[in-house]
Amino acid sequence: MKRARARWSRAVLVCGKCSKKLDGGFGPDGDRPLAKALRKRLGLKKGPKAAAGLVETRCLGLCPKRAVAVVDAARPEEWLVVPPGADLDALAETLGLAADRSV
Ligand code: FES
Fold first, then answer.
1. Which residues, at least 6 apart from 91, have a Cβ–Cβ distance to it below 8 Å?
2. How far, in Å, CA of 84 to CA of 78, rounded?
3. pTM of the full structure
4. How many CA atoms lie within 13 A of 57 on its CB side?
5. pLDDT per position in the chain (103 positions), as tens?
């Protein structure tokens, strides 16, 4: 089996379908989907060369009302339900992404 190296220190899954249903809800103007707003806030790029993986997925099966399901790969036993307008700095802290901000 081949292996591919990534620079990710953390991996977070964000439900893209929840985000789509909210039609924005995050970022300074409240018009960005969660993954995009969080990536922008933390200066994270996409792909394996990013400091951390913030991956938008299809439906995760939780389907919260007016919120976004998020899975921290380091703590898969406890998912987050993030309402629109949530504090992105606090969320990054909770997900252990804040430390990657300077990268
Ligand atoms: S729509 Fe997001 S978990 Fe189902």
1. 38, 70, 80, 82
2. 19
3. 0.92
4. 18
5. 999 999 999 999 999 999 999 999 999 999 999 999 999 999 999 999 999 999 999 999 999 999 999 999 999 999 999 999 999 999 999 999 886 554 4
Q: Which of 20, 57, 62, 66 to probe ligand 1 with, by most ligand atoms within 8 A of CB?
A: 62
**Burial of 82: CB neighbours in 10 Å, binned 0-12, 13-18, 19+:** buried
Alpha-carbon distance of 34 to 36, in angstroms, equals 6
DSSP code, position 100: G
CA–CA separation, 73 and 76 (whole Å): 5
> Which atom from ligand 1 is nearest to the alpha carbon of 21?
1
In words, the CATH class of domain 11-100 is alpha beta
